[in-house]
Amino acid sequence: MIQYGFHPAPKPSKGKRVKLTQRQKGDISQQVDKQLKARSHGLCELCNAARATERSHLTGRPHLDEKTKVTDLIHLCTPCHDWLDETPEGIRSRNFIARAINTVLEHQTTK
User: Fold this and answer.
1) Which segment of 15-24, 26-35, 59-68 scores lowest on mean pLDDT?
2) How far apart are the first and last CA of the chain?
3) How do 54-57 and 73-76 pair as beta strands?
4) d(CA 105, CA 49)
5) How many CA within 13 A on the CB side of residue 52?
6) 94 or 77: whose pLDDT is higher?
7) Up-side HSE of residue 5: CA atoms within 13 Å toward CB?
8) Tell me: the pLDDT tens digits for 32-89?
9) Exposed (0-12), middle (13-18) or buried (19+): which is 44, by Cβ within 10 Å?
10) DSSP-assigned letters across all residues of 25-93
11) How far apart are CA 91 and CA 52, in angstroms?
12) For residue 12, which phi and psi values (nearest 5 degrees)?
C-alpha cells in the first residue's frame, strides 16, 4: 500500500528588512533629543516664553526619507504645539518654520 503523507514545501526564510518603517523613521533618538533640548535651552521655540515640554515633527513621518534629525523637530510648549497641529495657520507655518530653523543652523555651522 502507498502512503501519501503531508510534505509541505518549506517557506522561504524571511530576510532582514533593510528599509526603515515610517514608525522607525519618526522615532527620536536620545542623541537627537539632547540636540533639540540644547538648541531650545528648554524654552518653546515659537513663543520663547513658556517652558518647552513637547517635541513636534515639522516634517510628517510619511515624508521623512531617513531617521528623524534635529532639523525635523521643534521644541514647543503645549499651547504652541496645539496651534501648530490643529489650526490651518499652524499647519501652513510648518514649512516656513522648518526652512527658518535650517537656515539658522546652516549659518551657525559655517561660522
Assistant:
1) 15-24
2) 87
3) antiparallel
4) 21
5) 20
6) 77
7) 3
8) 999 999 999 999 999 999 999 999 988 777 777 788 888 889 999 999 999 999 999 9
9) buried
10) HH---HHHHHHHHHHHTTB-TTTSSSBP-EEEESS-GGG-SSS--GGGEEEE-HHHHHHHHHSHHHHHH
11) 19
12) -65, 145
Query: DSSP assignment, residue 3?
Result: -
Q: Which of 106, 25, 110 is nearest to 69 (CA)?
A: 25
77, amino acid identity? C
Of the candidates 68, 46, 45, 67, the residue with the CA atom closest to the CA atom of residue 57: 68
Query: Which residue's C-alpha cell is 533629543?
Result: 33
Place of cell 559655517: 110
User: pTM above the 0.85 mark?
Assistant: no
CA 55 – CA 26 distance, rounded (Å): 12
